[in-house]
Prior knowledge:
By secondary structure, chain A is α/β, with parallel strands linked by helices. Chain A has helices at 45-52, 75-80, 98-102, 118-129, 147-160, 177-192, 204-210, 233-241, 295-302, 325-330, 340-344, 351-356, 360-363, 371-384, 401-414, 431-446, 458-464, 487-494, 501-505; strands at residues 7-16, 19-29, 34-38, 60-65, 68-70, 83-86, 165-169, 196-200, 213-218, 221-227, 259-268, 272-280, 284-289, 310-315, 318-320, 333-336, 419-423, 450-454, 467-472, 475-481.
Amino acid sequence: MKTKPIVELKNISKSFPGVQALKDVSLSFFPGEIHALMGENGAGKSTLIKIMGGVYKKDSGSIFIRGEECEIEDVTQAQHMGISVIHQELSLIPDLTVMENLSLGIEPRLGGSAFIDKAEMRSRAIKFMEPLGLRINPGAFIRDLKTADRQMVEIARAVSRNAAMVIMDEPTSSLSTREITTLFEIIEKLKKNNVSVIYVSHILSEVLNLADKITVMRDGCLIRTLDRKEANENVIVKSMVGREIKDYFNKKEKEIGEVILEVKNLTRKPHFSNVSFNLRQGEILGISGLVGAGRTEVIRAIFGSDRYDFGEIYLDGKEVKMNSPLQAIELGFGFVPEDRKLQGLFLEDTVRRNISMPSLKPTAQKGFVNSKWELEACKEYIQKLKIHTPSSTTVSKTLSGGNQQKIVVAKWFAARSKILLLDEPTRGIDVNAKSEMYSLMNNFAKEGGSIIMVSSELPELLGMADRIVVIRQGKVSGILGREEATEEKIMTMASILKNTQKEVVQ
Amino acid sequence: MNERKAYFEKIKAFVKEQPLIFILIGLCIIISSVSPVFLTPQNMINVLIQISINALIATGMTFVIISGGIDLSVGSVAALCGIVVSAVILPLINISIPMTVILMVILSVVVGLIIGFINGFSISRLRVPSFVATLATMNIARGFAYVYTQSRSIYGLPDAFSWIGQGYIGFVPVIVIIVVLVLLSAHIILARTVFGRYVYAVGSNEEVAKLCGIDVQNIKLKVYIISGILSAFAGACLASRLITGQPTAAQGYELNAIAAVALGVGGMEGGKGGIGKTVQGILIIGIINNGLNLMKISSYWQIITMGVIILGALIIGQYKKED
């Protein structure tokens, strides 16, 4: 094919506070081509498609659309230029019908009046869906549709608005095998209609079957673009993970003691099932897996913040039933959630009030806040964790991400937690703060505490964890010891190689 | 020169932090220049008596709004409790003052507890939005007040009943002493107790609060019970002041209370504010209304003023947030 690219990116860079999300990325996308983007979490795929979709603005570099340089200011403009992004969280309005969603903003009117021409709307919807082979009732409400059908409607909408490029962000993550087959047929049809498809996925086999080109990204850089012919599993995995592990993990010699926590057959449908593992005193246990594999759900269930259907949790050999975070905290657990802004911190509140919150009750005197304790404890942990804050009464949201994360950890230190559950503890914080976070974790473990750490960053897991539990689609697919674990092994265990495995879960 | 600049900066920061104090002072200057009566001790005491009912209700409203909710039922709860108290006291012709006080407190707790519990339970366990749940109980409570009285007022109450609403200790009205005590205790609860902290935590981010081990539903339940009891007690005090039980009493009082809190905090988003701020809001509203009275402007204008105050407070709060 010697056609002109629809979209051409030249030297695109983008950074967020503390992170260089994209470095000098240049790529071309051609009509009638399915181009897969692969890479670990945080490699920069999402940032790249968000820039093309008008969600983020690039810092530098240029974008050419059909040969002309242009700036993509917002989502509407991206759509006007023919770029449609189908996100993991779909953007249809659940309380409207399929045909209403398809005509949203361009409703046909009855003879130019304010009334909507329902018949025209319906036939229009059928006209859009037919070429894609969709058999969905145009009058059905979106909220009543299955995820897969919603996705199809979303694709139909993109096509109906003359999208020249459709970007799909992990479209199969919640689909069954049959639905995936339908999706692939539609993607092939888009290809025949000369649409350029960008396909972001973790699933190797899908990508190998579907894509004409595969681009692998890592740490915000474009590593290589492969043709379908030259691509195979090994090459892709190698390019995805092949990076040196930096030695800022400050791993310390320590003793690992007896099993203190045992999880048996923990199940919460449809998120995870029969999850079993144990945690020893002084151990850092890593949990690896793709986004959406059920990692977060497992530790939230252990902390009592989500219910679980069945399964047992033993603490020091005694069975405990986790009904609420309060109970977990009383038993010595602390939880650092993945989204510190929405789940970890009272952003509008002071550093001190954040740190003391879980310990207010145990330290209280006849229901009154023990201010003396509060002052001293906060001073102690601000110092110990090297939280850079003008004072303990500074409002938390004014601090950097790294310092905010330290506050979240500090509140569990202050509460004297014995088992810390950390969900993506270093997400969105700079290298320095990361390294400090690692020493905090190591010291905590050395002093006899235990840690379960969920992380999407493989180097971090390999550098920090004593053992790694790999979760794939809600099930433990393996537990690796420190010596045997490699990035390739983890990726292979975590990736979904065959679609048939989908059916097992459902 | 630099010192002076720093001094100015300090004043500017203070004005930005505490704009209401300046609004209060400004209002006092304007009104006293129009009406010489305004600054007399007698009028000042009048203002305090006039704001006392709203102060009691707004104290409960402060708890609710800090926890991230709203309570529209307060005015109706006040009316219902006024009726209940009047009905119970009416036949007790020779009742003593202490007995009336005890009865008022007990009945307020009962009425406030029942409706506060219904509010709190629907909001926390049944997940009904607070606006809707309390809108419903607002109508239910008012309806009961009408049904019980056949929409007639209860007159002929014993003299002892008027002590709380009309009595004095020295030169200070009893009701003002009660309000000060209630405000002080509420302030201590919100600012110094673990429960108070939890109320702020729930209002500023429920999920974070839950993950810190706070029983969010329980805190919400308690907050509506506090609001219920305080507004019921306010209703009893109002009946005592009027020596009448009126089913139409305290109409629209929810608006006054919400206005006081919203004005004090500059918004209604939860997790913010406190009794100190609410007191400022109550005083501003009280002084504006008193000023309008002194200038002989119709009381209907006070309703309009209240609406304008709420709107203005929210607009200013929005600006402050965007800063």
